[in-house]
Specification:
Length: 362
């Protein structure tokens, strides 16, 4: 079990620490609901330094990334970020990731913590393009400053034009007197804000500066518990729950980042899958009856037929009812249907809905 660089600081703050993706992580500091509402209504900071970062450099960097990811990397410009996936040879997903473009020969990949070793092996295995790969995962800390007041907090600490930054763009410069901080207008909450990449040696200084600048806005540290409810209210998929080595990006509702007109690993399988038609798809649902959906609960049609399984579920603090994502037979994967979920051997009513569950404030 690895510790993130600020592990001792989180323990001193009274965080409940628990294993997640091979790391000892802060799950909550007060309560999941309180922390969730802090991000939705004001501003909070997540320490997500467990995430992985790979640096890609070389004349054929674009060709390499076009081959190992599903999205069209050629659409990126300097300072732009793209959501994408690593496909495998069987039509499944190695991981989902973010691609940052620094220049025509320099890119940055941000991957999931639990997949760092697997992804690193994967990108090296397919590096037949002569690019230089560097695993920076142990060198950087990552803080997610999220919420409607995030811009106000960060603007106090930097001369970078953070209030004018567009969603899914990034810049780098001096923040809180610390040089070479990457400021990314991204997040996993739908509440707006930034993700800040900083060298480990400067992590404590940046964390403290954020809390000093954010004091007037009621800033709080936020754990992984609230991160999960926030992302699920937006319908954002989580690798290991909603995405896996056996999950097709088309089944997962990620056709928008799966460009079948380019050549990438496993593209023929996905083209055939699209032509034939999908047997199952992901769908969002809300509880009609009272109950909290959890992963692996079975979904049934109104006549009792088992048609799928929940991959993510929770009680939405914003909506005050249970919400979830599930893979079901394709004919049931559309909004407006009444279905049933098996919770403790009782079939309870649910309704399929269109995402997001809660409107984004980005």
């Amino acid at each position: 079990m690895k510790n993130i660089p600020l592990n001792d600081l989180h323990e001193k703050l009274g965080a409940k620490m628990a294993p997640f993706a091979g790391f000892n992580m802060p799950v909550r500091y007060s309560s999941d609901i309180e922390e969730h509402k802090t991000v939705r209504e004001a501003v909070g900071v997540f320490d997500v330094s467990h995430m992985g970062e790979f640096y890609v450099k070389g004349e054929r960097a674009l060709d390499f990334l076009q081959y190992i990811t599903t999205n069209d990397v050629s659409k990126l410009y300097n300072g732009k970020i793209q959501y994408s996936t690593f496909p495998n040879e069987n039509g499944g997903l190695v991981d989902d990731l973010l691609v940052y473009k620094f220049s025509d020969t320099e890119y940055y990949l941000v991957v999931n913590a639990g997949n760092i070793d697997k992804d690193w092996e994967w990108v090296n295995k397919h590096n037949t393009f002569g690019v230089e790969l560097t695993n920076l995962s142990d060198n950087y800390s990552l803080f997610a400053l999220q919420g409607r007041k995030a811009k106000d907090v960060l603007a106090k600490l930097t001369s970078l034009p953070v209030k004018e930054m567009e969603y899914y763009t990034f810049t780098n410069g001096t923040v809180a007197g610390l040089e070479h901080v990457i400021v990314s207008a991204t997040g996993y909450t739908g509440a707006g804000g930034f993700e800040l990449y900083v060298e480990n040696k400067d992590a404590v200084a940046l964390w403290n500066a954020l809390f000093e600048a954010g004091a007037e806005f009621g800033i709080k540290p936020i754990g992984l518990g609230a991160r999960d409810t926030l992302r699920l209210e937006m319908g954002y998929s989580l690798y290991g729950n909603d995405l896996s080595d056996t999950t097709s990006p088309l089944e997962a509702g990620l056709g928008w980042v799966t460009k079948l007109d380019k050549n990438f690993i496993g593209v023929d399988i996905l083209r055939a899958q699209k032509e034939k038609g999908l047997e199952r798809k992901i769908v969002a649902f809300e509880m009609i009856d009272r109950g909290v959906p959890r992963a692996h609960y079975k979904i049934h049609s109104t006549n009792g037929e088992e048609i799928g399984e929940v991959t993510s579920g929770t009680q939405s603090p914003t909506l005050g009812k249970g919400i979830g994502l599930a893979y079901v037979k394709a004919e049931f994967a559309k909004p407006g249907l009444e279905l049933q979920i098996n919770i403790r051997e009782k079939l309870l009513k649910i309704e399929t809905v269109k995402l997001p569950f809660v409107k984004s404030t980005v």
